[in-house]
Design goal:
With 447 residues, this protein is α+β, with helices and mostly antiparallel strands. The chain folds into two domains: 219 residues, Rhopdopsin 7-helix transmembrane proteins (Up-down Bundle); 150 residues, Heat Shock Protein 90 (2-Layer Sandwich), CATH 3.30.565. Helix content is 67%, strand content 11%. It is built from 13 helices and seven strands. A hairpin with a 3-residue loop joins strand 6 and strand 7. The longest helix is centred in the middle third of the chain and has 72 residues. The protein starts with a helix and ends with a strand. About 1% of the residues have low confidence.
C-alpha cells in the first residue's frame, strides 16, 4: 500500500506540474485551444489521483469505481481532442464524445445492473487503449515536418496504449467475479509500468510544445526580417521621389506651381499614413495597445464610419449602402475609437479598389451570441489563392490594376489585430456582387 500511495502521489504532483505548464503555454503561446484542452485533461487526471488517494473514504465501492472510470475516460478524450485540433485533423468530434458516453454507460451497466467484474474493469480500459493508439498514429500524420519530440510523444502514446491493453486483458480474464491473482497483476501493470509511460508521454508533449514555440519564433523572425526589408523599400521609394522633386524645384527644372506642391503633399501624406500604420502595429506587437472598452451601439460606429467616407465614395463614383436585419439595438463591449478605425480601414480598402460606378454594401446580422458585419463590394475580385493572405502584413495582390492603387499593405493586418483584441474574428471571401467580401464577427452583449 505504501508503494501504491507513493506512486499515486508522484502522479498527482506530475499531473499538477503538467497542467501548470500547459496553462502557461496557453497564456504565452497565442492561446491555442489545444493547449487549454490539455490543461483540463491533466486537471482531470489530478482529480482522479485525489480520488484514488481517498478511496477508503467511500462507503460504496461502485460509486468510487464509476467516478474513477469516468475521469480516466474523460482525460483520454480531452487529450485526444487537443491532438485533433493541433494536427488539424478532419475527424468528427461527435464520434469521440458519443463513444465516450457509450463506454461510461456500459461500464455503469456491468458495475451496477448486470454485475460482471471483468467487463466492468476492462471496457473503459480497452476504449482508452484504442483512443491512445489512434492519437499516437495521428501525431505522425501532421501535415508539417515531423519533429523528434513528436516521434517521442507518438511512441509514448502507443506504449501507454499497449500497457492499457495488457491491463484490460488481465481485467477481462477475471470473468464475472474477482480473481485475486489476476487482480494483483492488473494492479502491477497499472501502478508500475503505466505511470512511467504516462510521465514519459507528458514530458514528450511538453517537448512538442517547446518545438512548436521554437518553430513559431523562427517564423516570426523570418516575418520580421521580411517586413523590415519591405518597409525599408516602401519608405525609400517615396522619400527618393520627394527628394528628387524638391531638388528639381530648387534647380528650377520644375515650376513652383500648385500642382507640384499638391503632389508633394500627397506623397508626404502617404508617408505619414504608413508611419502611423507602423506605429499601430508596434503597439499591438508590444502589447501596449490599450482598449478603453465600454458598451457601444454597433450601428452608431458603422454610421459614423459611413458618413466620414461618403464624400470619398461619391468622388470615386461609388454608392455605399447600409442594411440591417436587426430590429433591436445591438450592443458590443468595445473601444469605439479602435473599432471605428477597423471599419474605416475596411471601407477605405473597398473604395480604393472598387471600380467606378460600383457599390459597397454593409450588412449587419445577429445570432444568440455574436453580431456579424459584412462588407461587400463589386468587381474587381481577388483570386482565391490570395484570400488567405489578405490580412498578412505588407501583402499586396499581384495584379497590375491593384498595384497602381496599392496602399501600405498594413491596413487589413491592423483590422485583424483590432478585431482579435475584441475577441472577434475577421475573414475574407468572394462577394456575391463580384468583388471582395469581409466578414467581421464580434461577441454581443445579451440583455
Amino acid at each position: 500500500m505504501d508503494a501504491i500511495f507513493f506512486i499515486e502521489l508522484t502522479l498527482l504532483i506530475t499531473s499538477s506540474a503538467l497542467a501548470i505548464i500547459f496553462y502557461t503555454a496557453w497564456r504565452t503561446m497565442g492561446k491555442h485551444k489545444y493547449t487549454l484542452i490539455w490543461t483540463f485533461a491533466f486537471l482531470v487526471i489530478v482529480i482522479q489521483r485525489i480520488f484514488n488517494l481517498n478511496k477508503d473514504q467511500f462507503d460504496s465501492h461502485s460509486l468510487y469505481w464509476m467516478i474513477v472510470c469516468t475521469l480516466s475516460v474523460l482525460s483520454v478524450v480531452l487529450g485526444a481532442w487537443g491532438h485533433i485540433l493541433r494536427t488539424k485533423s478532419q475527424f468528427n468530434l461527435n464520434y469521440l464524445f458519443g463513444s465516450c458516453f457509450l463506454v461510461i454507460l456500459m461500464t455503469f451497466y456491468f458495475t451496477e445492473i448486470e454485475h460482471h467484474v471483468g467487463l466492468s474493469m476492462s471496457i473503459y480500459v480497452f476504449y482508452n487503449t484504442f483512443v491512445l493508439f489512434c492519437v499516437g498514429i495521428m501525431i505522425l500524420k501532421r501535415p508539417k515536418k515531423i519533429m523528434p519530440a513528436e516521434v517521442g510523444a507518438s511512441a509514448s502514446y502507443i506504449l501507454l496504449a499497449l500497457f492499457q491493453g495488457l491491463a484490460g486483458t488481465l481485467a477481462l480474464m477475471q470473468g464475472e467475479n474477482i480473481n485475486e491473482s489476476l487482480r494483483e497483476m492488473y494492479i502491477l501493470v497499472n501502478f508500475v509500468t503505466l505511470p512511467a509511460a504516462f510521465i514519459a508521454m507528458g514530458l514528450f508533449v511538453v517537448f512538442m510544445l517547446a518545438s512548436d514555440l521554437s518553430e513559431k519564433l523562427s517564423q516570426l523572425m523570418a516575418q520580421k526580417n521580411s517586413m523590415l526589408a519591405d518597409v525599408t523599400h516602401d519608405l525609400r521609394t517615396p522619400l527618393t521621389n520627394i527628394k528628387m522633386q524638391l531638388e528639381a524645384l530648387e534647380d528650377g527644372a520644375l515650376q513652383h506651381s500648385e500642382k507640384s506642391y499638391s503632389s508633394l503633399q500627397k506623397k508626404l501624406g502617404n508617408l505619414n499614413h504608413m508611419v502611423g500604420d507602423l506605429y499601430q502595429l508596434s503597439l499591438i506587437d508590444s502589447g501596449s495597445l490599450v482598449l478603453n472598452k465600454q458598451d457601444q451601439l454597433i450601428e452608431n460606429i458603422l454610421n459614423e464610419s459611413i458618413e466620414s467616407f461618403q464624400p470619398l465614395a461619391i468622388k470615386a463614383e461609388l454608392s455605399v449602402n447600409y442594411h440591417s436585419t436587426v430590429k433591436d439595438q445591438v450592443v458590443v463591449n468595445a473601444d469605439a475609437g479602435r473599432l471605428l478605425q477597423a471599419f474605416n480601414n475596411l471601407l477605405k480598402n473597398s473604395i480604393r479598389y472598387t471600380d467606378a460606378q460600383g457599390k459597397i454594401n454593409i450588412s449587419v446580422f445577429v445570432d444568440d451570441s455574436e453580431v456579424a458585419i459584412l462588407f461587400e463590394d463589386t468587381s474587381p475580385g481577388v483570386d482565391t489563392s490570395d484570400l488567405a493572405h489578405l490580412f498578412d502584413r505588407l501583402f499586396r495582390v499581384e495584379n497590375t490594376k491593384f498595384r497602381a492603387k496599392s496602399g501600405s499593405g498594413l491596413g487589413l493586418s491592423i483590422v485583424k489585430s483590432i478585431i482579435n483584441a475584441h475577441e472577434g474574428t475577421v475573414s475574407a471571401g468572394h462577394s456575391r456582387l463580384g468583388g471582395l467580401s469581409v466578414m467581421v464577427k464580434l461577441p454581443k452583449i445579451t440583455a
